[in-house]
Amino acid sequence: MNKIQNSSDQIQPYSYSSINKISKFFFTWCYPILNKGRVNPLQQTDLCLIAKEDSSYHSFLNYQNQIDYAKRSNSSLIGDIARAFQTILSAIQPYIANIGQTFFIYDKDEKKPSGSSMGQFTLLSVKIQGALQYRVMQKSLSFAMSLSKNYSFGELLTILQVDIIQASNYYIYLFSLWTCIPQLIVGGIIFYITLEENSIVPAIGAVVQVFFGLIFGHYYGVIQKKFMEAKDQRIQLVDESLLYAKQIKLNCLEDFFEKRVQEQRKIELKYLRYQVWMVIAIKLVMLIIMVLSWEIAFIVAKKINFSIISTMIQNYTSIVMTLDSLPTLFKNYQMSLNSMNRIEKFFKDKDIQIHKQQNENSIEFNNVKTGWKKQQNEDTIYDLDQSQTGMLQRQEDKTQFIVEISMKVLPGQFIAIVGSSGSGKSTILRSLLGETYVDTGNISYHGQISVASQEPWIINDSIKNNITYMDQFNQEKYKQVIECCCLQQDIDGFKYKDNTILIEKGDNLSGGQQKRINLARAVYKDADIYLFDDPLSALDIKVKYEIQQKCFEGYLKNKTRILFTNSLANLQNCDMIYIFEDGKMINSGTFAELKNIKQSQIIIKTQENRELLDKQFEEKIYQAPSHQLETQATLIQEEDRKQGNVETKIMKQIFEFQGKWLMVIIIIFYIGIVTTCQLYGNQKMADDSIPDDEYKELAIIYYPIIQVPVVIANIIIILYFLFRGLSTSEQIHVDVIKSLLKASFTKFYNTILIGRLINRLGKDITNIDYMFPNEIYNLIFNIISLLLPLIASIIYLNPVALPVLIVFFIILIVLTIIYYKSLREISRMEAISKSPIVSFYQQILRGILFVRSCLPHQEVIDRHLKNVDLDLGNQVNLNGLQQWYQSIAGTITNVFQTLLFIVCFYAEGSTPFMTYLILLQMQSVSLLLLLVAVSYGNILIYCISFERCLHLANQIPLEEDDLRDQIQEEQYKSNHLIELENCNFQYRPRTKQVLKQLSLQVDYAEKIGIVGRTGAGKSSIIMALTYMLECTDGKFFIEGQSVKQLRLQQLRQKFSVIPQEPLIFMGTLQQNLDPLNQFDIKEIESVAQICQLFKLDALKKKELQSEIQVFGQNLSVGEKQLITLGRCLLNKRSIVLVDEATANIDSKTEEMIKDIFEKHFTQSAMIMIAHKITTIMNCDKIIVLSDGCVTECDTPNNLLLNPNSEFKKIVDLIKQSEQL
């Protein structure tokens, strides 16, 4: 995780707090950035840091000090007064403009008003984001996600990515809505003063528009809430698919997971289409009301002339701008309000239960009944919000399991809690950590807790930093922990020792190495109580014994230790052993006492004999690695960031997505209709030869003729771009998901952080969904609105005014080019700076059991805020640059308008009426220029979202669909089911071979056992057979055919795989057993009965329709493995690959799985990978691997005939055991 932090450790040249107030007011602090960006692409070190007083920490302190942070404490009184003054100026501008007619019509000398300034809310949004980021992380560290019905990974990631940003704009939208009220009131008063009775009809029309705007805002908010819920579910499914990438490939389920994600995406797009239709409908309604208001106003008016019409246009233009903004403001307000409510609901959700501290015992369970549901009634889940019925019912399958326990643990005791899969061991551990409901009794403990979870938590950082994470490094202590956790030999095997960077989830380690690093982290923590959740499973027996002696009984001998395990073997030094079954304690006592109980005596003796035999086999056969592994110091690549202009091919793709020449035709059509109608209307309106009595008839006839085509053109273009945007977004999402699920596991997933991908599939897809097409429409609309007065000025104004226009445009174009160069690079950096936030938060959530119990919460929050402040600083730079441009462009346009006014005053155009009308329309040029610049800048930002998503769709390394060209280069036909001859395999090009000179023959229905120490290359064989590794040399045949003649899907469909980490996903039990829906319900039920799935507490109530939570959180490891086994039974494939399927489960479940293997896989060839020789004693052939090479391989009979075979010596020992 240090990798994530490095991005914010760069040396920054200056901080925003060091900028003086004058520089902030005039945005002169942007000039150094612009100057650097003009010459070279900007880098992160060229930007200023966020000011200390605006940082997330200080913003949270302000937030915390408020009774209700709805108070706008971050907005100053001066700012409010300035905003109010701007509102009044904007409202009375039509009145001033009405007086200004006298310049050209009545020849009176008055002054023309200047343009208004712009409000600034950037820092308010930044501060709110900072405060919410702090609070969300703080809440996550105390939030009982395992008990929540409403929140899982997907919802929390969406809150972090989307809701916080939308909520940060809540007060901006709310304040903007409130300013509309005085604008409309003052505007209405001025409207009446200037037009008197002519103002009544437009005023009624304005009221109707406000009414429809309110209705639109309400229903848009309802639909947007459902849209966000659908997005939550999609992000959850995407997260699940990416984290299970390896297992998905092994099981050949890429199409299934792609279909799951895309189906959820369709639901999300359905609500997005509803939103689009609502936007189009409200736009049409607003335009129709406006046209009707004008037409009725002309009909009922007593007198109409140019003076009255120009005043009505100016007045109504001012009011209609406010009315036009209302639907958008209502929409944005509802979106931000929904996000605020979602965040508030999360803040109010249940926290973990903090148990009381007591002084006598280290731990005490006093008549406790605990489980996953508060015991009220069978169908009610505690503290639920029933409004979420559309969401997956996450908790209903966990609700039936209850553990009853009474136990006292004294300081310094070593306690073992033993039980089979589903007996309640993990429930007891989680209840102690406050993550279950305690219905009766109470739990108390004394001291600091450290915990090693059953599933290892590996972060993207070095081995050393994984072990010492967020703890002070002590060299001597570190060496002791490495030694007692038996990691030294593994570390020595890496080229970069303990500086080797581990990838997310530790996929560049073996399962045993992951377990021991996870254990070492827990041991390194200074604590009073150590909780170990089955940390020794999947380890070599010799290593297991050493850890037991050196760590549990040595290094930690004076600490309170609780070991949760499924085996009674080697527990003779425990002070007390508790045996659980079905949530109840069935036996307890010391090891000696339990040995006197007949049933326990048999179990103990059997398990001890097996472990002794396995230990002897390891000592004789396993060899230490002879060379260092070529694991790189770091595999994780920096996030790709383009520089300079967006690539031409990206722009071409965007052009194609928008319809290519059809888009051009639509735009030309729109421009032609609007320009023709408006210029024709201007000409008719400013005709000074028309007497007043004919003017009214002219207005009644020509107004609808001019406006109806404009309304139709507006609707057509917005309809085109919004729906084209939806189809574009849908296609890009399809391409990205397809590409990700086909990406190479070793070349891509081993070099990327999942958080980066989630960031692109969240924020960037959102930009493409709606923001981009809406911004294109806005840009075209604003450009047309800008061109109309400019074209009219060229046609009708005096030629003396043309140099003013030309100089103005040259200055503005040069300024805009400089601005866009910097804007583009800052936008890229701002997009990239969000990835570390998501990655860090995601990894913290995955290790929440350890993080919550063992890490200093403030340190976790501070590291999170370090990433957040870097992003917020980039936002300040980005928004500061935008506001600089708006300020400087506004000043230049105001100067231009003044000069144009002076020129027109002394050099008249074609007619006084036309000159005034053009100057009247030119008043909006300043605002329109800013809107065009902002729209184009936003489009550049959204093009970067296209760039980032299209990179995933087109440029990431994919698995070869064809293993090789379909060339019959090998005429040899193998008679074996599988045959490998001198094959070498590697993870990536230019890396060391992990399997060397591998030769193997497997016949039909043959059972092969493969053993070897941790890191010997056992699991690599499964990856090699399924072609996830690259075969550089040798011949590889399957079913008599060279793999070079097979497609990848054809090859993998020949295998059923039972991996060490089972593939269990969110859905029903039936979906997990039969994801492709290939089998009859009776077949599925039969398999479920064979695997005894209906006897499991989580599944017995609803059987095949039982809901399984994300990552199978409501199942034990053994239960997950049984479901995976059931999936293999259904598929009935000729080859079954088993990767240490029994490593993490109890002996009872292990025996059941072995029995299923013997009875139901007799016709299948099996390659079984195991740590322990006892698990594969009945195999037809035994292979011993060491350091990627085969050291011994033959049938058991041949090995037994060889007097020098180490295998023969072990079998002789086995024969002496009555238990085997």
Automatic annotation (TrEMBL):
<dbReference type="InterPro" id="IPR011527">
    <property type="entry name" value="ABC1_TM_dom"/>
</dbReference>
<protein>
    <recommendedName>
        <fullName>ABC transporter family protein</fullName>
    </recommendedName>
</protein>
<feature type="transmembrane region" description="Helical">
    <location>
        <begin position="899"/>
        <end position="919"/>
    </location>
</feature>
<keyword id="KW-0067">ATP-binding</keyword>
<dbReference type="Pfam" id="PF00664">
    <property type="entry name" value="ABC_membrane"/>
</dbReference>
<feature type="domain" description="ABC transporter">
    <location>
        <begin position="978"/>
        <end position="1212"/>
    </location>
</feature>
<feature type="transmembrane region" description="Helical">
    <location>
        <begin position="661"/>
        <end position="681"/>
    </location>
</feature>
<dbReference type="GO" id="GO:0016887">
    <property type="term" value="F:ATP hydrolysis activity"/>
</dbReference>
<dbReference type="InterPro" id="IPR050173">
    <property type="entry name" value="ABC_transporter_C-like"/>
</dbReference>
<feature type="transmembrane region" description="Helical">
    <location>
        <begin position="925"/>
        <end position="944"/>
    </location>
</feature>
<feature type="transmembrane region" description="Helical">
    <location>
        <begin position="200"/>
        <end position="221"/>
    </location>
</feature>
<keyword id="KW-0472">Membrane</keyword>
<keyword id="KW-0547">Nucleotide-binding</keyword>
<dbReference type="InterPro" id="IPR003593">
    <property type="entry name" value="AAA+_ATPase"/>
</dbReference>
<keyword id="KW-0677">Repeat</keyword>
<comment type="similarity">
    <text>Belongs to the ABC transporter superfamily. ABCC family. Conjugate transporter (TC 3.A.1.208) subfamily.</text>
</comment>
<feature type="transmembrane region" description="Helical">
    <location>
        <begin position="170"/>
        <end position="194"/>
    </location>
</feature>
<keyword id="KW-0812">Transmembrane</keyword>
<dbReference type="InterPro" id="IPR003439">
    <property type="entry name" value="ABC_transporter-like_ATP-bd"/>
</dbReference>
<feature type="transmembrane region" description="Helical">
    <location>
        <begin position="776"/>
        <end position="796"/>
    </location>
</feature>
<dbReference type="GO" id="GO:0140359">
    <property type="term" value="F:ABC-type transporter activity"/>
</dbReference>
<dbReference type="GO" id="GO:0016020">
    <property type="term" value="C:membrane"/>
</dbReference>
<dbReference type="GO" id="GO:0005524">
    <property type="term" value="F:ATP binding"/>
</dbReference>
<keyword id="KW-0325">Glycoprotein</keyword>
<keyword id="KW-0813">Transport</keyword>
<feature type="domain" description="ABC transporter">
    <location>
        <begin position="381"/>
        <end position="607"/>
    </location>
</feature>
<feature type="transmembrane region" description="Helical">
    <location>
        <begin position="313"/>
        <end position="330"/>
    </location>
</feature>
<feature type="domain" description="ABC transmembrane type-1">
    <location>
        <begin position="121"/>
        <end position="335"/>
    </location>
</feature>
<feature type="domain" description="ABC transmembrane type-1">
    <location>
        <begin position="662"/>
        <end position="946"/>
    </location>
</feature>
<feature type="transmembrane region" description="Helical">
    <location>
        <begin position="276"/>
        <end position="301"/>
    </location>
</feature>
<feature type="transmembrane region" description="Helical">
    <location>
        <begin position="701"/>
        <end position="723"/>
    </location>
</feature>
<keyword id="KW-1133">Transmembrane helix</keyword>
<dbReference type="Pfam" id="PF00005">
    <property type="entry name" value="ABC_tran"/>
</dbReference>
<dbReference type="InterPro" id="IPR017871">
    <property type="entry name" value="ABC_transporter-like_CS"/>
</dbReference>
<feature type="transmembrane region" description="Helical">
    <location>
        <begin position="802"/>
        <end position="820"/>
    </location>
</feature>
